[in-house]
Amino acid sequence: MADRVLALDIGGTKIAAGLVDSTGSVLRKATCATPVGDAELIWAAVSKTMHVVLDTGGVRAVGIGCAGPVDVVTGTVGPINMPTWQRFPLRDRVAGEVPGVPVELAGDGMCIALGEHWAGAGRGSRFMIGIVVSTGVGGGLVLDGQPFGGRTGNAGHLGHVVVEPDGLPCTCGGRGCVETVSSGPMMVRWARERGWPGTDAIELERSARAGDGIAVAAFDRGGRGVGLAIAATAAVCDLDLAVVGGGVARAGDLLFDPIRLALSMHAGLSYLGGLRVVRAELDTNAGLVGAAGLVARC
Ligand SMILES: [Zn+2]
Predict the structure, then answer these.
(1) How much of the chain is in helix, strand and coil states, percent to nearest 5?
(2) Cα 2 to middle of ligand 1, angstroms
(3) From ligand 1's centre to the CA of 224, what distance in Å?
(4) What pTM did the predictor assign?
(5) How does strand 146-148 pair with strand 137-143?
(6) Does 16 map to a domain?
(7) Paired strand residues for 148
């Protein structure tokens, strides 16, 4: 039996497939842009990408991470940013292409958390949240060393913790979720509304490093939002670690300083004294490694 698994990481922007070994190393990888179109067009791209990495050596299992919401009970997905996939039977479709082996499905946030826990910055932690701050904000929980998806597989989705009750409307139907404050596009929007002339989060980081007051304030506000959400989650789940990754987290101390400041103000319970916040290590492979980890951790 091959000691390798097939991992899939499917999002609204990119589809990735990889062969991953029992240590979490990615042996082969293929990616493609997620097409915009009907459900079968997207599925065809997933199928094609997975067959690019599959060879005659076989795999012993398949792990799938997909943008959420997912439903691990039915094996279906309905990503907010892939509107033509509604209750799409992703697990059964994949199982049909790779017959005879176990197939596991989880949300992409869970997979990123699990990837960092297995082979990245979360190694050795027992109770952690993995967080992605990017075009959106997502996350997943590893509790007592095991991925914890909750009833349908969506537990740990930190992006919809409310940090500004009277804040902006959110895609979830609520208001003031951390995603409306701390995602790259929303930080850019907040800065632009105050006169900052740039257009994207990379420029915003550059401006903040150059000392632009609005850009610095945007990172302070964004980091504070993430920090508040971590504080709330850590208090509820009794965590020892938060691993933060994603494109916005590449700004480093610009984001992490206000995260830590917020925690110093809002995570004062005695059992949170050991809570650490660290930067993710796996970067763009975290989701793929975590999807493999669903079925391959030794
Ligand atoms: Zn929301």
Answers:
(1) 40, 25, 35
(2) 42
(3) 17
(4) 0.94
(5) antiparallel
(6) yes
(7) 141
Q: Does residue 114 belong to any structural domain of this protein? A: no
Q: How many CB atoms lie within 10 A of CB 100?
A: 7
* One domain for residues 168 and 94: no
List the pLDDT tens digit at each of the 298 positions of the chain. Answer: 578 999 999 998 899 999 999 999 999 999 999 999 999 999 999 999 999 999 888 999 999 999 989 999 999 999 988 999 999 999 999 999 999 999 999 999 999 999 999 999 999 999 999 999 998 999 999 999 999 999 999 999 999 999 999 999 998 999 999 999 999 999 999 999 999 999 999 999 999 999 999 999 999 999 999 999 999 999 999 999 999 999 999 999 999 999 999 999 999 999 999 999 999 999 889 999 999 999 987 5
Residues 34 and 103 in one domain: yes
Q: How far is the CA of 174 from the centre of ligand 1 (A)?
A: 5
Same domain, 75 and 213: no
Helix (H, G, I), strand (E, B) or coil at 50: helix
**DSSP H or E run through 19:** strand 14-21
Distance from residue 67's CA to the centre of ligand 1 (Å): 15
Indicate if 187 and 49 belong to the same structural domain. Answer: no
Number of domains in the chain: 2
Q: How far is the centre of ligand 1, averaged over its atoms, from the C-alpha of 159 (Å)?
A: 7
Q: The CATH number of the domain where 17 resides is what?
A: 3.30.420.40
* Residues near ion ligand 1 (Cβ under 5 Å): 160, 170, 172, 174, 177
Domain extent, residue 230, equals: 121-280
